[in-house]
Amino acid sequence: MIHLFSSEALAALICLLFIAIATAAQFFQWSWWCSMTTADTLLAVVSCIFACRGVASGRQCKWPSDVDFTSRVALVTGASSGVGYGVSQELAQHGWTVIMGGRNLLRLLEAKRSLMAKKPSGRLVVLAEVDLSDLDSVRGFAATVLEQKEKFPVSLLVNAAGVLRRHLHRCEDTGLEEMIATNVVGPMLLTNLLLPLLEETAERSGVSSRIVNVASSCHTFLGVRQRCSPGEMLAALHPSPKEGDDKEAKVETPTMEEFTLGNFVGYYGLSKLCVIWWTSVLARRVSLRFFCNGDGRQLKVFVACCHPGVITTHLYRDLFPLPVLDHVLYYPSLLIGKTWKEGAQAVLSICVEADKMVHGGYYMCTGEYGPNSGINCLSKEARNLEGANNFCVWAEKVIEAQRIIPKKPKTGQSVAAPKKIMRVKFVT
């Protein structure tokens, strides 16, 4: 999950080398080690920490000096915290108008106040909240954005929202597993609904709009002792009704109390693999619609995804039974991980840089991308075009089915029913 050529891998190597040298020096009682004072030891430790942090911070985005961004509008999901918050801050600091999207309106407004306190040159706007696991919420949010398209002609869409759960949960309206719904299917629907607006903005301005999806190197890890393909994992998460069953009835799945570390991280990796699949399919579809070589037409919408690095955000807050553990582990992990601001740099590079851009590419936090980087940073499954097409067809069917089947009104229920924990049967 930590790419061998990434900055955080090098930071981890520096940390391990320091520990190994200190351990060997103590064991063999080397003379220089024995002669060190307490101040010398503290200086060595502090130097190691600064070296790790300096390396882990990674590559910074190279903002074009000859481009005026004050007329540009961006929509960033997951903007209340983490990478989305960092992207929103940097875009606003460089003059962008940023529409902030998130599932908790209070947290969005708090994030906006925090960013406004930094006195950015751009604007920060909160139009509405959006829960990407709820497709009706996504449609409502997209409708709100489209109603304001004359005021906010969006030219950049950053799908940065994501969740990582210790348990697998089923969404009530679609039956989708929550990580799959929030990390992939919800952003797919939002992107499809806003794609005409992105095309229209590109047509008016003469500058290509961009769609940036936040993926992860976790797509290479699909669980401990993986015994089935990604397609089989998706099928196990979302079984189809058998013939003769009531298709409107909710498909029941067995329950499971706990997931091991390897398994629930594996299903998070599955959701990020689907992000890469969707990005590649979307890029091909956009190219077929709007790009013709030799006739002078410009690509209207540029699409890419990226791995922002191993970031010490509070994405992991749902993994621990006690919330305090999240905060206890947050600061030590900064030794080899990126902050949310540093992690945002890889995303920003795709948003604003113009050199050597690859349509449909997968960018690493080091600035390298996909097959052309000289580093095999995509897994075998991620390069499976048939799997990518099959996933997108399946996801679009789920979206369409949820649209045409009306929700049954809830009577006498003031509090939403708790989501059920799911268990997945592996196909051997």
UniProtKB/TrEMBL annotation:
Keywords for this protein:
Oxidoreductase, Signal
Asked if the Swiss-Prot or TrEMBL record annotates the protein with the keyword Oxidoreductase, the reply is yes
Which is one Pfam family of this protein?
A: adh_short
User: InterPro entries, from UniProt?
Assistant: NAD(P)-bd_dom_sf, SDR_fam
Signal peptide interval: 1-24
Source organism superkingdom: Eukaryota
List the Gene Ontology MF annotations in alphabetical order: oxidoreductase activity
Key word Oxidoreductase present in the record?
yes
Q: Which family does it belong to?
A: Belongs to the short-chain dehydrogenases/reductases (SDR) family.
Q: Which PANTHER family match?
A: RETINOL DEHYDROGENASE, SHORT-CHAIN DEHYDROGENASE_REDUCTASE FAMILY PROTEIN
Q: What is this protein called?
A: Short-chain dehydrogenase
Native species: Trypanosoma cruzi (strain CL Brener)
